[in-house]
Amino acid sequence: MIVLVFPYSYSYSCSYSYFMSMPYALIPAAGKSRRMGRPKVSLPLGGRTVLEHVISALQHAGIDDILVVLGAHVAHMSAALHRVGARVLVPADETHTMRATVEQGLTWLENRFHPKPTDSWFLVPADYPILEPAIVRKLVRKRQTNRHYSIFIPTYQGRRGHPALIGWRHVSVIRALPPEVGLNVYLRRQTKKTLEVPVDSPTILWDLDTPEDYQRILAAWDECKE
């Protein structure tokens, strides 16, 4: 049995900022959700949307600067996301891959915050509604104590999941990749720079692609409330 606690009731108090700045978070949410048959980021879950749950988990982990990159087909969500404390970007031109969506977001973050090479960012897929703040905090702590790594990936029983914490120094390299190389391919190539971080929860693997995935997550949600 997976034990989940909702709604989140975590507090975050840490001297992390004494050592380095907190990471940014980038949530690419421009996909068309073709396998789901409807926009998955706006699906309801426990009185909020899937995307609002992702934002809330990051906030409860102490992440303040959260950028959501929306596709035009879900741009109507912008006002609600602003109300819960996220920043929102709707690119003028449609992005056809997750990498293109992420690069739009990285450019926005650069123009707004001027990150240093020593800064970092979370890549947080929008379709992981049961994102656990404790896992986000664990990745932050691992970065604090393992400065010779610049990518941190959670794993469950040897399988990689999300979110990924990535050093800002990788941004220029990602931009220079050939168009056919996706972010997952790039991250898997960075073996010497990556620290895999084992966690005890399979939720890092629970994405939301199909109606069956949605039903499984609804069932887990209902179970945790019993």
Name the shape in a single word. globular
- Oligomeric description of these chains: single chain
CATH class: Alpha Beta
Which spans of ≥5 residues are poorly predicted at pLDDT below 50? 1-19
Secondary-structure class: alpha/beta
The CATH architecture classification is: Alpha-Beta Complex
Number of domains: 1
Counted by DSSP, the helix tally is: 8
Radius of gyration: 17 Å
- Classify the helix fraction into a percent range: 25-40%
Cα(first) to Cα(last) distance is 12 Å
Task: Please provide a written account of the structure.
The chain has 8 helices and 10 strands. Strands 1, 4, 5, 6, 7, 8, 9 and 10 form an 8-stranded mixed sheet that branches. The chain has one domain (20-225): Spore Coat Polysaccharide Biosynthesis Protein SpsA, Chain A (Alpha-Beta Complex), CATH 3.90.550. The protein is α/β, with parallel strands linked by helices. Strand 4, helix 3 and strand 5 (87-89) form a beta-alpha-beta unit.
